[in-house]
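Ligand-bound model needed. uridine-5'-diphosphate-xylopyranose.
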Amino acid sequence: MKITKICCIGAGYVGGPTMAVIAQKCPNIQVTVVDLNEQRIKDWNDPDTNNIPIYEPGLSEIVAEARGRNLFFSTEVEKAIDEAQVIFISVNTPTKTYGKGKGMAADLKYIELCARQIAKVAKENKIVVEKSTLPVRTAEAIKSILDNTGNGVQFQILSNPEFLAEGTAVTDLLNPDRILIGGDSTPEGEEAINALVDVYANWVSRDKILTTNVWSSELSKLTANAFLAQRISSINAMSELCEKTGADVSEVAKAIGMDSRIGSKFLKASVGFGGSCFQKDILNLVYIAKSYGLTEVADYWEQVIIMNDYQKRRFSNKIVQTLYNTVADKKITFLGWAFKKDTNDTRESAAIYVADDLINEQATIAVFDPKVSRDKMLNDLNYLQTRSVEDNNSKVVAFNDAYDACKGAHAVAILTEWDEFTAYDWQEIYDSMHKPAFLFDGRNILNSKEMESIGFIYKGIGS
Ligand code: NAD
Ligand code: UDX
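Prediction:
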């Protein structure tokens, strides 16, 4: 079976970049990305590709090359489903905020809606690909909906989780460590797997394309995120011990990372991990383990989240304690609001929680982030429902310029590791601040000795 038409439901951080790269690398495949969100689709179709809704280095160039040729963004969901042989489901699977599993389980309502819509529209056999991150055995539910509400056509369900990280999505997609495809071991299942393998083989070497059964594929995605997040919580746990003992967490990370069994990546101590995936997926894993009665397994993984929450709180507590136990009416400047550099995504960013703690202490927060608007910052805070919208409004001031943001501040806190922060004239910033001037480096991107020689009272993470 040769694939010539793909539809992707969900034009978000995964659907958009993933399909743009498939379209770029497979000019003979027509790729249509659909979404219910009209504004999002309008933005993807903006004639100036610098205005597409997702910022990722290199993405606007790829969209410029493929859009209108074989890459299309549309709100006509049913038409795209009808035309395609393969339908990727890339919709969001957030943590449930209601009912059974509230605060832990993945909310599968968007997935179910997609399955029902595919069943309703499909008049020919289709391959349905789970691109979203899903609880293990979700394919079973999708298959049941498709088979029971469909028009008698055959569906093959494949699991093809996405491993891209935001900020490096394009390079991750172009040079993936591996592509994982899970499917049934029936002849029809194998045919579907091979068809998808052939799509990726247009730019990924076949030895990097791993095929497994569906459940292994689904569970591997949750496991990968749990392991990655666990490393961060592990080094963050050590960061507090370093602060108490005089060890330096960067030195410890380097020393252990040179052990090839441990490896050097993902050992950067920080104010805590953020992003839409790690917390959500670990909570989901914990929920699944609990639902099978595996209490010890659930508790083990939950500790990764507990440590991460503690690390964020520890950072805000340190700011308060260092500023003589009061930040009331003091201006604290945040450099960075995004959950990591090179993205405009703020979901679960540590900055939100640190700001919330400091506003509770009646501080005023001045923020500069190169890619995040004030509206987004306020939305993030309002979502927590800690205080009224008016109160958040009066406590957060956003700046278009970092130097302006820092003027008259009692303390500057670095929440995102944007490269440009390291190139700033820190003497100028120091001169414009209240004295003593405090610098809290939540990402350990500045040179502590240099900052201290300027006059800052500098506090990094884990030293
Ligand atoms: P997102 O919120 O950015 O995008 C999801 C999109 O789906 C939204 O634009 C929404 O409007 C649309 N949508 C929802 N229901 C729909 C429907 N019924 N019909 C049409 N459109 C619909 O989410 P995302 O960050 O792209 O994540 C999508 C999935 O991929 C999640 O399961 C996530 O866990 C997983 N994932 C995300 C990342 C990441 O870095 N963001 C990486 C790997 C995997
Ligand atoms: C993650 C996974 O890396 C990716 O494979 C998966 O597909 C989606 O979830 P993402 O959340 O986009 O990707 O970014 P990632 O680079 O993993 O960073 C997550 C958070 O951890 C960020 O807040 C980052 O700053 C933090 N982090 C990362 C650390 O604090 N220390 C590190 O050493 C690495």
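The first helix runs from residue 15 to 25.
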